[in-house]
Amino acid sequence: MSQDKSNGHNIEPELPAGVQVEEIEIPVPWGHVAGRWWGPRNKQPLIAIHGWQDNAGTWDNLIPLLPTSTSVLCLDLPGHGLSSHYPTGMLYYIFWDGVALLRRIVKHFKWSKISLMGHSLGGALSFMYAASFPDDVDSIICIDIASPAVRVPENMVKATGWSVDKILEYETLSENKIPCYDYEEMIDIVVDAYKGSVSRENCKVLMKRGMAPTPAHLKKNGYHFKRDPRLKVSVLAMMSLETALAYAAKVKCRVLNIRAIPGQNWERLDYYMAVVDKLKETTDVTYIEVEGTHHVQLNSPENIVNIIEDFLEMY
């Protein structure tokens, strides 16, 4: 990482003996998708996908706890972390775009069957990919989510007009109107936004890829958020429970679903459990509840690492 190494905010921490990680870029038509490839490069990795408005740093505390022989490619989704933003005029349909992105990456590396691990949005994308390409997935690990069905349709409908206007507003946001903050102030904002789900120290972990020094030509001191502000609008990508259940019926691979308690305060927790129950009708599902916040993989990785390691060793 190149940003601001002088003050130590983005310097890679000391890794445990034998643990290795490399920054990579995968070409896509609008630029590149960035990633952190942990472990050996001579074997096909588990693909790890972060949550909404997070980045690949969400796995930085968990992956080093896994055996050093484990290969994991942690992606920054488009518009997040170090990945390219979409061009002006394009919209993010976050629960759908990721399915096409994963397919691009699979074709880029010429992989056949893959395994996926995702937190929140990333878990929903893992579910969607496994349902869309049921013969091409060995297993998925979903952390504190089951599918993109997380809100009642009435609330999705109600928010549509606002969402479209907000996207157009963000699209015309001039560079000199982008807010800038000093480092500690930015961390304060992030801590407040996560509402207790991520500790202050772990907010700093996420911000290694989530913030950058303000460009010199703006003649402002401080930092700005790297993520595309258009990502703040997410409701256009959600789906009804009926649709999610139809996708769930197509999943063939083994599923590990880890639900954090208290975890995320989902608008409809019954939707979550309905999808898990539907998956159990057609495939091998391991559902486990653990103590932790929604970002359990970042805040309390020791609570889930053995569960994940056992699941990965089963095949």
TrEMBL record:
InterPro entries: AB_hydrolase_1, AB_hydrolase_fold, AB_hydrolase_sf. GO terms for cellular component: membrane. One of its GO terms (molecular function) is hydrolase activity. Signal peptide: none annotated. It holds the Pfam family Abhydrolase_1. Keywords: Hydrolase. Residues 45-149 form the AB hydrolase-1 domain. Belongs to the AB hydrolase superfamily. This is Probable serine hydrolase. It comes from Papilio xuthus.
